[in-house]
UniProtKB/TrEMBL annotation:
Protein name (record): Guanidinium exporter
Key words, A-Z: Cell membrane, Membrane, Transmembrane, Transmembrane helix, Transport
SUPFAM superfamilies the record matches: Multidrug resistance efflux transporter EmrE
Cellular component annotations (GO), alphabetically ordered: plasma membrane
Single Gene Ontology MF annotation: transmembrane transporter activity
InterPro entries noted in UniProt: EmrE-like (IPR037185), Small_drug/metabolite_transptr (IPR000390), Small_multidrug_res (IPR045324)
Gene name in the database record: sugE
Stored Gene3D superfamilies: 1.10.3730.20
Family that this chain belongs to: Belongs to the drug/metabolite transporter (DMT) superfamily. Small multidrug resistance (SMR) (TC 2.A.7.1) family. Gdx/SugE subfamily.
Naturally occurring in which organism (per UniProt): Sphingomonas montanisoli
Main location: membrane
Membrane topology, from the record: Multi-pass membrane protein
GO biological process: xenobiotic detoxification by transmembrane export across the plasma membrane
Localization terms from the record: Cell membrane
Length: 105
């Protein structure tokens, strides 16, 4: 169950990062509220998952999901560049996440 909560926490990290970008420096009310609400949920679920998962594993997976999710949203929704080097870096992040999960057993 901790892994499921950790994945959901990572998805909420993507939500808050995206909303933060849309808030334009917290100058827009609704995206700012979404940012803080999603942060609250994300941190809460991360904290819950750390009850049984090691700190290094939980934090690495949480930030990795957020990084890859934000990368995908940036390209698919915000029109950011999808260069070969950026995609290669994203693949390496995913490989690291898989290795973290495999190391847990």
């Amino acid at each position: 169950m901790a892994w499921v909560m950790l994945i959901i926490a990572g998805l909420f990290e993507v939500v808050w990062a995206t909303a933060m970008k849309q808030s334009q420096g917290f100058s827009r009310l609704v995206p700012s509220i979404v940012t803080f609400a999603a942060m609250f949920v994300s941190f809460g679920l991360l904290s819950w998952s750390m009850r049984s998962l090691p700190l290094g594993t939980a934090y690495t997976v949480w930030t990795g999901i957020g990084a890859i999710g934000a990368f995908i949203i940036g390209i698919a929704v915000l029109g950011e560049a999808a260069s070969a080097m950026r995609i290669g870096a994203a693949v390496l992040i995913v490989c690291g996440l898989v290795m973290m999960k495999l190391a847990e057993g």
